[in-house]
TrEMBL record:
Alphabetical list of SUPFAM superfamilies matching this protein: Galactose mutarotase-like
Species of provenance: Paenibacillus glycanilyticus
Native organism taxonomy: Bacteria, Bacillati, Bacillota, Bacilli, Bacillales
UniProt superkingdom: Bacteria
Protein name, per record: Aldose epimerase
InterPro entries with a match to the protein in the record: Aldose_1/G6P_1-epimerase, Gal_mutarotase_sf_dom, GH-type_carb-bd
Amino acid sequence: MSQFQVTSYTDTFKIYELIEESTSSRILVCPERGGIVIGCQLNGLEVFYLDKATFEHPTANIRGGNPILFPICGQLENKTYIWDGKSYEMANHGVARTSAWEVVSTNTDGEASITIVLRSNEQTKESYPFDFEVTFTYALVNGELHIRQQYRNLTDTASMPFYAGFHPYFNADSKNLAYETDATTYLDYNDMVEKPYTGELDLDGMVESVTLLGAKKREIAFPVSGGARVRMTYDDIFKYVQVWSVQDKPFVCVEPWMAMTGELNRQEELVMVEAGSTLSANLTISCER
């Protein structure tokens, strides 16, 4: 039997399971619930938090796993933006996390992987008037989860604005954690004050998130439940990391974003993909025990 396997089963929705036996690792993917990874066991330790009830409810926002944020991260004032003189409404974090993705292929040659795609449709165009194709490959190899992304603009003439990101929920025993990053400051959305980053963040009592600023290295590491450390590495296009939690819930969210919340209204750091072009990006999650 190959050390790499891809299987599927039904648990309310169809779940694809990527398995690497040699590292006791497995990834659980649900394409029809926003293409989300709901389970991430690396080197024998489950690092993702999941509120199962929110996953099982077909229209609830999933509290847990790793929601995909596209074409925006965060929120828009009044959930509204104007593009080419027309006003559009878009829900927080965009359209990808509430859309059903299609399975393109699976692979067990040298890795356990699944490739899924989201294409624009009438529903997405109500919020985001662009023809697009977003393709993700989730690959499990050497005890690491690699998320290979392609953002393709299928529009004939217009450039496509977006800023994608991720919203992973990590199991955590504390809200006061030391984050290994070269960020120098952070913007505290609880009081809108930029503050020096001194090596740790205490989210206890915070309602809103914070955004780490000034990082040159595109990686961050931090402790998770089980006495391990998670490390995320990502491409340069992910300029910011958002950190957030909820009081009395055993998780922290550490979220690589391409731009800060509200960017579709500011339009200062938008990622623009020319007509017919594709932007590729990568994110890797590993667990150090």
